[in-house]
Design brief:
Order of helices and strands: HHHHHHHHH
Radius of gyration: 17 Å
Structural class: mainly alpha
Shape: globular
Number of helices: 9
Oligomer: single chain
Length: about 220
């Protein structure tokens, strides 16, 4: 499919998977590796992208501050930030659904982008467990879709999108609105954990789109 070898596809899938899962659940329900400075030291340095480098610097600095805190309090701080940004009350400060980025004043994440993502997931044979009642156009779900496609490509499985199809998905879905989501997050918590995480996601998406354009 591409000049990217299977090991690079595998790493890319793991990165998308980590970020996607981190955006779908608060840290109180996920691994806390993001609060370990060594985790960011060991993060794959495969992405030639200044935004990725800047994000990793911020995330490591955040983790270093967290390392000086009681672990339970550090996790609670991130979980509270998650709730404020992506849940509410009374409504999320940074709605994590693509639908909300396509028009001003939209706060409910169910629209055309939701239907598009439903169709994309169905075509890939993926079923949303939806234990947290999220719409399919959630940023975390879009990144997890990419994670699964990268895993399939790395494993040499048939019936995966070609480079052009995958590039269209990256451009028309997560990359088309992550800047808007980042802006809302940074307005609320520019020094928080999720500002760095979304900057990292954007950098990886930009790098990936560029590599797909070379195919």
């Amino acid at each position: 499919m591409s000049v990217m070898d299977s090991s690079l596809w595998q790493v890319l899938g793991e990165v998308y998977g980590f970020i996607g899962n981190s955006l779908l659940k608060p840290m109180s329900q996920t691994p806390t590796v993001g609060l370990d400075p060594e985790f960011w030291d060991g993060f794959p340095r495969l992405f030639d992208n200044e935004r990725v480098d800047a994000a990793l610097t911020k995330l490591k600095a955040y983790a270093e501050t967290a390392a000086d805190m009681d672990e339970a309090k550090a996790v609670e701080r991130v979980a509270v930030e998650y709730t404020r940004l992506f849940i509410g009350p009374p409504s999320p400060a940074a709605p994590p659904w693509e639908t909300t980025s396509r028009a001003d004043g939209v706060s409910v994440g169910f629209g055309e982008a939701t239907f598009q993502m439903k169709a994309i997931l169905r075509e890939a044979g993926l079923e949303l467990s939806n234990e947290n009642n999220q719409y399919e156009d959630h940023m975390g779900i879009e990144l997890l879709y990419l994670s699964e496609m990268c895993r399939r490509i790395a494993a040499g499985e048939p019936s995966v999108p070609d480079a052009g199809e995958l590039r269209v998905f990256v451009e028309e879905h997560p990359l088309s609105w992550i800047e808007t989501l980042r802006g809302r997050v940074e307005f609320e918590r520019a020094d928080g954990y999720y500002a760095g995480l979304l900057e990292l996601a954007q950098g990886v998406l930009e790098w990936h789109e560029g590599r797909l354009a070379e195919q």
